Amino acid sequence: MAVVYRSWKALTQNAILTRSVSNSLRLYSQKPPAPVVPLVNVEVDDKSGVAVVTLNRPPVNSLNTPLLTELGAAIKNLEDNKSRGMILTSSSDTVFSAGLDILEMYNTPKDQLSAFWTTLQSTWLSLYRSSFPTVAAINGHSPAGGCLLALSCEYRVMVGPKFSIGLNETQLGIVAPPWFVICMRDVIGHRQTELALTTGRLFSAPEALKIGLIDSMVSNKAEAMAEAQKFITQFAKIPPLARKLTKESVRGEGIRYMEDNMIDDLQIFMDLVTQPKIQKGLEMYLATLKKK
Ligand SMILES: CC/C=C\CC/C=C/CC(=O)SCCNC(=O)CCNC(=O)[C@H](O)C(C)(C)COP(=O)(O)OP(=O)(O)OC[C@H]1O[C@@H](n2cnc3c(N)ncnc32)[C@H](O)[C@@H]1OP(=O)(O)O
After folding, report:
1. Which residue among 26, 60, 235, 245 is least enclosed by CB atoms within 10 Å?
2. Is residue 3, in this structure, part of any structural domain at all?
3. What ipTM was assigned to the predicted interfaces of this complex?
4. pTM: predicted TM-score of the whole model, two decimal places
5. Known catalytic membership, residue 168
6. How many structural domains comprise the chain?
């Protein structure tokens, strides 16, 4: 019995050894697993209580469902912790955000497409109506959805002069939904919004400053962060509840639009984006981006 036991033990140990050697060899020949890197970094300054939320999805911070989900969770967390303010910026030196990830809209199964849009809707609403002050420190190009994020903050400081910003949807053959329009109109007015949206114009930072699409232009990210901090500091002595209710009142149209129209807005998006003509347009646009 002891012999049988020893042989069985030897056999199993051998098998374990062989397995572990072959596993090691297999592991050795495989790439090590990629470390899980957050798509959104949040750092809260101990002294000021201000959070710096950094978009971190190289190369261009295009907004896909996981990134939007992380951003939404970060905003909720700041809300739950009664944050003093948030600065939204990017880990890239040249791109704030390239807008919505076109790959999420091109050739995508309907359930994924729907999850993508509803995540965008809810993350946008949490940013737009956040109780704490928000600043976009735009340290790179900021087209389309990138511009929407910036417009949803209360103040925009942009590194210039070489980066661009705007809602360029019509240039892609797609249509900026009403809540994109409200965001832009509330910042630059009806006339400039009509001109900007119908042409799908991207503005250089100096042009954006001229029409009020950004509040300030600086020459580097450090200056942008300092100015963003300064903007938030001015609220230190304003009672937070009065501030929050006032912001909700000023932004009431956009908030109500989203709350009342979430399902219709999703349906319109799905109907539009799944049209073969729009899909072809997105395919061609992706090809031009890749050919660059
Ligand atoms: C009713 C409602 C219906 C519809 C509403 C839908 C609303 C949509 C709003 C949107 O946000 S649509 C997205 C619009 N975005 C753009 O037009 C920006 C496109 N990107 C650029 O112009 C440039 O990439 C940049 C100026 C942001 C940065 O330029 P650069 O630094 O030279 O990078 P590359 O162009 O070389 O790009 C690197 C890499 O990333 C890919 N990429 C860029 N943008 C996107 C994107 N938005 N989605 C997916 N992928 C994108 C690009 O193809 C390159 O890929 P490689 O594989 O070649 O590395």
Report:
1. 26
2. no
3. 0.98
4. 0.90
5. yes
6. 1
